[in-house]
Design goal:
By secondary structure, the chain is α/β, with parallel strands linked by helices. It folds into 3 domains: 7-46 and 209-299 and 429-494, 3-Layer(bba) Sandwich (FAD/NAD(P)-binding domain), CATH 3.50.50; 49-67 and 82-95 and 300-413, no CATH class; 110-194, no CATH class. The protein is built from 13 helices and 22 strands. The chain binds flavin-adenine dinucleotide (FAD). Its main location: cytoplasm. Residues 15-486 form the Amine oxidase domain.
Length: 495
């Protein structure tokens, strides 16, 4: 009689889930009976390449953060996804020809901008190197602000406090999009020293990030990935289960009421889904160490807004936006809505593109999802007008028929916060949590005596202690959990 293969069910067809499936299938194809259930109608999860006004754009993951040692880079290069003839987002790398404009339209002296931005980077580098003075508080926000105060005390007669504040805040706003923290004071300062980045260039993927996902999926036998299958509840057996040969220890209940039995379930849904009430149920409920780690870690909203400039208008330069921090001050433009006021930049997605992009984080990112297209366009127009000196200078023959700014014809935005399958964008180590919580996220269940049963395993970006929040963190977590299963069965004494 042929022995039954252990049944592995992977929940989620994003980077972590598909990496785990790819690894299990390509390394041990005969060992497992493998299925991936994905609630959405596409694979990729927070990787989602799209198109806007003829350009290739990314709604989610955008950058390979450092090509040195990145597995995502290795795959993209291997499958020839790094070159293409269709123009793509940031095909020319980070824009380095931009101007920093103060609210009201004054182009700031590059020296002023660079001294404050260098101060900012030095402070963040200090935090990441772990060299913090003993009396620092728990949050990144106050550490940064103290750094700015100390700088001021030793650099009198600079560009003026309002301008320095505006440029410093611009850097903070960029950090908010990097981390997804609404308020940098919620970001755990001590944990910054554990975060790791790859060396080398940061690049985008010419043929789209989704190509990497499609490559992983293409190795799996047809029928392995089931789309539109939303898991509602996972029933497991903390006492070990699986002793009765006919009855696999885990039962996965789908939204349509059907059930799938499994020996091992790999949960890869986002931390946001695990945090949300009713996002994913477990019966019995998850042990307290897991629930508490889920509760303590941070998971914020980051969204991208693409804006198409009306045909025939002049090129818009890359603009970093230094907003006045004091309401009612001379340069404060009252018409600019609050949800635009913590946006760090408006940039063409590559030099010469008619598609502009801004990133939003936190409350502003959540608000962006609720607004109508007209409200967004009107808020963007007010902002472009409020920072319009650059445009006025550049377009003497202006024909847009609107103030000093350009006209936006239409917009496209991501909506990660309100999407029930994500409930946000990526994780961060919040004040009150630590890197240990990321390790706890990765702990398989049951823990304790029945540990080897590996009924529920956890992968996904929020389970990686040093590369959380990234595609490569998700990738590494998928490899880790696949290896855990492969190792479990390669050691026959554990069977
Ligand atoms: C706007 C934005 C920009 C980003 N930029 C970058 C970047 O530049 N570089 C970078 O490295 N990373 C970036 N990231 C982060 C990166 O996209 C993620 O870290 C990574 O893709 C997460 O992969 P994952 O497999 O852990 O989770 P996910 O991609 O969330 O996959 C989980 C899957 O589970 C599915 N699912 C959810 N609930 C259920 C259910 N009940 N039943 C079945 N399936 C379910 C979801 O539909 C999803 O497909 C960005 C993310 C966002 C949102």
């Amino acid at each position: 009689m042929v022995a039954k293969k252990p049944r592995v069910l992977i929940v989620g067809g994003g980077m972590a889930g598909l990496t785990a499936a790819h690894r299990l299938y390509t390394t041990a194809s005969d060992l497992f009976d493998l299925t991936v259930v994905e609630a959405g109608n596409r694979i990729g999860g927070r990787i989602f390449t799209s198109e806007f006004a003829g350009d290739r754009v990314e709604m989610g993951a955008t950058w390979i953060h450092g090509i040195g040692g990145s597995p995502v880079y290795d795959i993209a290069r291997k499958i020839h996804a790094l070159d293409d003839s269709t123009p793509w987002e940031r095909m020319d790398g980070y824009p380095d020809d931009g101007v920093t404009v103060a609210e009201g339209g004054v182009v700031l002296d590059p020296l002023t901008v660079s001294s404050i931005s260098t101060l900012y980077r030095t402070l963040m580098d200090t935090a990441r190197a772990g060299g913090l003075p003993a009396n620092t508080g728990p949050g990144v926000g106050s550490f940064l602000r103290k750094g700015l105060q100390a700088y001021r005390a030793s650099h009198r007669g600079g560009a003026g406090e309002a301008v320095e504040d505006a440029v410093f805040a611009m850097n903070e706003n960029t950090e908010r999009t990097y981390t997804s923290a609404d308020d940098l004071e919620e970001l755990n300062l001590a944990a910054e020293s554990e975060y790791r980045e790859f060396p080398g260039e940061q690049i985008t993927i010419a043929r789209g990030y989704s190509r990497v996902i499609e490559h992983l999926a293409s190795a799996l036998p047809p029928g392995t990935i089931r789309l539109g299958r939303k898991v509602q509840r996972i029933e497991w057996s903390p006492d070990g289960g699986g002793t009765a040969p006919a009855e696999p220890p885990v039962k996965v209940i789908l939204e349509d009421g059907s059930a799938m039995a499994a020996d091992h379930v790999v949960v890869t849904v986002s931390l946001g889904v695990l945090k949300a009430k009713g996002g994913m149920e477990f019966n019995p409920s998850l042990p307290s160490f897991k629930r508490e780690a889920i509760g303590r870690l941070g998971f914020g909203v980051v969204n991208k807004l693409f804006m198409e400039v009306e045909e025939g208008e002049d090129e818009v330069p890359s603009m970093e936006l230094a907003f006045e921090q004091e309401e009612g001050s001379k340069r404060h433009v009252a018409k600019i809505p609050w949800w635009m006021r913590r946006t760090a930049s408006i940039c063409p997605i590559y030099g010469g593109s008619r598609v502009l992009l801004s990133w939003f984080a936190g409350k502003e990112a959540a608000e962006l999802e609720k607004l109508s297209e007209e409200e967004i366009i009107s808020g963007v127009h007010a902002t472009l007008d409020g920072f319009s000196a650059v445009k006025v200078d550049r377009r003497c023959n202006g024909s847009a028929g609107r103030g000093g700014g350009v006209t936006i014809a239409r917009v496209m935005r991501s909506g990660w916060g309100s999407d029930p399958l994500f409930q946000g964008s990526y994780s961060y180590v919040a004040v009150g949590s630590s890197g240990d919580d990321l390790d706890l996220m990765a702990e398989p269940l049951p823990s304790g005596g029945a540990r080897m049963a590996l009924q529920i395993l956890f992968a996904g970006e929020a389970t990686h202690r040093t590369h959380y929040s990234t595609t490569h963190g998700a990738y590494f977590s998928g490899i880790r959990e696949a290896n855990r299963l492969i190792q479990r069965y390669s050691n026959s004494s554990n069977n």
